[in-house]
Amino acid sequence: MGYSHYWSHEAEIPAETWTKITDDAKRLVAAFPAGLSELEIDHSNIVFNGAPPKDFETFGLGRLSQDTLCKTNHRPYDKLVCAVLSVAKQHYPPLAVGSDALFEGLVIWPDAARWASKVLGRDVSIPWNARPHNQGMVDRAAARAWPRRGRRRS
Q1: Strands 66-71 and 59-62
Q2: What's the CA gap between 102 and 119, in Å, rounded?
Q3: In 75-107, which positions are buried (b, 16+ CB within 10 angstroms) versus exposed (e)?
Q4: What is the 3-state secondary structure (H, E, C) of 87-149?
Q5: CA proximity to 25, closest of 70, 90, 76, 111
Q6: 69, 28, 62: which is closest to 45 by C-alpha?
Q7: Could you report the per-residue pLDDT of 90-124, keeping only the tens digit for each?
Q8: In 3D, which of 136, 134, 44, 124 has the Cα closest to residue 82?
Q9: Model's pTM, two decimal places?
């Protein structure tokens, strides 16, 4: 399956909330030091990928209900994916977020949250309350806290 991040939400994100998410995403993209491709941030989607040759799967967070994932393969844009999901969860708590990074330790998520906090000038935290144990690992149940419906690509 590969190294992936997962997210889902069952309802359309309200317009005023989506505006807050996209405003933050635009600021994060503008501050992101590595290149991006396929960039689109509008009234219904936030889409981007790493710049070739460091691209992998395209990240796509949509305003409409979705249950999806993005494989980043530890490429540089992985940090931006984590940061955008963190601010999206902050603005829209019903968003469920999971990550294979939980099985490998929590290094990318705190790093992304610290970076997003610096860029946005406010506290941004990781989107769950996982407690590391066993040399940086967390319970698999915590990692898969997002809904177990059949995953579909949006």
Answers
A1: unpaired
A2: 24
A3: bbbbbbbbbbbbbbbbbbeebbbbbbbbeeebe
A4: HHHHHCCCCEEEEHHHHCCCCHHHHHHHHHHHHHCCCCCCCCCCCCECCCECCHHHHCCCCCC
A5: 90
A6: 62
A7: 999 999 999 988 877 668 999 999 999 999 999 99
A8: 124
A9: 0.84
